[in-house]
Design goal:
eight-stranded mixed sheet; nine-stranded mixed sheet; 20 helices; alpha/beta; 40% helix; globular; 596 residues
């Protein structure tokens, strides 16, 4: 697969030699993030079947240029599909083009197909019947979610905020004019419709499309929930997508077309340039480099390495990594947002399932990114990670002295291992002790523990384990104080001390009520006592923040904290260079493995 750019849209071309091509039209928002890895696998499967395939980000989404609050978003999304079709035809020589859309993408694909009148086939995967029903569904989901205390309302007259994505009032109004049941012309000669198990109105859509003279095939979508529920399940085999592949291959024009090398891919942004990059021993890892347009603006500043938040692709939860990267470029900082192995658009890790997090092997991916940045002239780096990305950032800093600063957001764990699913981490998270104290005084809680209620037993086991761990770690500190050695290998506070001694600046950020404060409390106590007084370490709590910082004001607050963090690192570097009479940073300096 080859990264490509066309008219401010970023995409991936999956080449094949066939004469029928496919354009994939992604769903909206969090559904696009959830299905990203599955969508990639689907595109690869289509290419293997001889169908050149293009997947892309609509304008203002993913890695494409623009923002969701820009005007005329709906028109831009539909026009993006038209541009994608033209690009596929021009760069692969295909004679026929099919569109495949999922959820809102199916609605957009149908509208684009009807406008273009040149689409040969259309696959609708659990389509939204109308823009009005989609807006109603999104509004209901946003109202039903429990926001953190102090967060602004998710639904207002100005728009809907859902998981860090914003649907403006203008976009909602435009969407509500789209209705598949109002089609007056056939969108394509052949249509394949997959109905979700709980679909309402699918029968009416089927009947309406057939009245337009379309050759329609209707099939069930039994693995809809598997595909859409979370990133881990979405990586499993999807029989529905296999059936879609077989249907798209039916009757494809015979013969092959010569395959030309893919075109270059760079995005010009206001004040910045972005370049997709491959790195790692076999270039199996993927990232996007975002640099200030004027190289002089860098002023020998460190690059910023943005890691995956959990199992979310390099775009970031609520597109946060893209927003941060472009904000940093405007302030003179280059950044590289990457996918660790098995995530997003990077290759799979040998012998491991995809979308696993808290993997010790991910540290080697971080070091590969540092190697690539150093080869481009960036010898120092500040690493930023959220959730599992925070743990990977910490271990990367421990392993490599080119990291001079780190910003850790809501780390769910501090210790890496063989990798776990996001579901497993959520299921085993222990809340802060204060959340359990009222329940421990309740007789019903003890009765549940005594009768070995599964949930109560898990909580009791977690609390006991936490107490034992704290005692063991404190004993190690006493030994170290008396003998100079003896720290527990998982004494995370000692890790931060070692980083401070090396001059690494740390920003440790939590949402004011985040569930990960239980993990924080396990290692550092309720007030973070072992961390207080550590030089160059700053702890902050953000009010009104959800775990992934998808709420606008909380996200903006973190961006401001990161600005201050980078400024402090720049100031410290300038002081060191002035004191030492240095004119440049040493080219290379490694720590000898992970410190503990």
């Amino acid at each position: 697969m080859t990264p490509v750019v066309f008219e401010d849209c970023f995409g991936w071309l999956h080449p094949a030699a066939g004469r029928r091509g496919v354009v994939l039209c992604a769903p909206y928002g969090n559904e696009a993030l959830t299905t990203h890895r599955a969508w990639r696998a689907f595109a690869e499967r289509l290419a293997e079947a001889g169908l050149p395939t293009l997947r892309f980000d609509y304008p203002g989404t993913g890695d494409s240029v623009g923002d969701e609050e820009d005007p005329d978003r709906l028109r831009a999304w539909i026009d993006g599909i038209h541009v994608a079709v033209r690009f596929l035809r021009a760069n692969t020589g295909v004679e026929e083009v099919a569109l495949v859309g999922l959820r809102l993408g199916a609605l957009l694909a149908t509208v684009a197909a009807q406008e273009a009148r040149g689409v040969n086939a259309l696959v609708l995967l659990a389509p939204c019947l109308s823009g009005r029903s989609f807006v109603q569904e999104l509004r209901a989901m946003s109202l039903l979610s429990a926001p953190p205390e102090g967060a602004p309302p998710a639904v207002t007259e100005e728009g809907i905020d859902n998981g860090g994505f914003r649907l403006t009032a203008e976009t909602m109004s435009a969407l509500q004019r789209l209705d598949l049941l109002a089609l007056t012309e056939p969108p394509a000669p052949r249509v394949l419709l997959f109905d979700r198990p709980d679909a309402r109105g699918a029968g009416r859509l089927r009947d309406h499309i057939r009245k337009l003279g379309v050759d329609l095939r209707e099939e069930p979508f039994p693995d809809f929930a598997q595909l859409m529920s979370n990133v881990q399940r979405a990586t499993g085999p999807c029989e529905t997508l296999e059936r879609a592949t077989a249907w798209l291959k039916e009757g494809a024009p015979a013969g092959n077309v010569p395959q030309a090398p893919g075109p270059g891919a760079s995005l010009a942004l206001p004040g910045a340039m972005e370049h997709p990059v491959r790195f790692g021993p076999t270039e199996e890892l993927f990232g996007v480099l975002c640099e200030p347009a004027d190289p002089a603006d860098r002023r020998d500043r460190p690059a910023v390495l943005l890691l995956n938040s959990g199992a979310t692709c390099h775009v970031g939860s609520g597109r946060m990594s893209v927003r941060l990267a472009r904000r940093l470029a405007a302030r003179g900082y280059a950044s590289l947002r990457i996918d660790l192995a098995g995530l997003g658009d990077s290759g799979s890790r040998t012998g491991r399932a995809d979308n696993l997090i808290y993997c010790q092997e991910a540290v080697s991916d971080v070091r590969a990114a540092l190697d690539w940045l150093e080869a481009r002239g960036y010898r120092r780096c500040v690493v930023v990670g959220l959730c599992a990305g925070a743990a990977t950032a910490l271990h990367g800093a421990l392993a490599d002295a080119r990291i001079v600063g780190q910003a850790l957001i809501n780390p769910g764990r501090y210790v890496l291992g063989d990798g776990v699913t996001s579901e497993a981490v959520t299921g085993t998270a222990i809340k802060p002790m204060a959340a359990y104290l009222p329940r421990l005084a309740d007789r019903a809680t003890w009765r549940a523990i005594l009768r070995k209620d599964r949930k109560a037993a898990r909580v009791a086991h977690g609390l006991t384990k936490r107490i034992v761990q704290r005692v063991r770690i404190k004993a190690g500190r006493v030994r170290a104080w008396m003998t100079g050695r003896g720290y527990a290998t998982d004494d995370v506070a000692h890790w931060f001390h070692r980083l401070s001694e090396r001059g690494v600046h740390t920003l440790l950020v939590h949402g004011a009520d985040d569930v990960t404060l239980g993990e924080f409390e396990t290692h550092f106590g309720r007030d973070g006592g072992p961390l207080r007084g550590i030089r160059n370490l700053r702890m902050e709590r953000i009010a009104g923040a959800d775990h992934s910082l998808t709420i606008g004001p909380a996200r903006d607050r973190f961006a401001s904290l990161l600005d201050e963090h980078l400024e402090a690192i720049d100031a410290a570097t300038a002081q060191t260079m002035a004191r030492n009479g240095a004119t440049m940073i040493p080219k290379r300096a490694f720590a000898s493995g992970t410190e503990g």
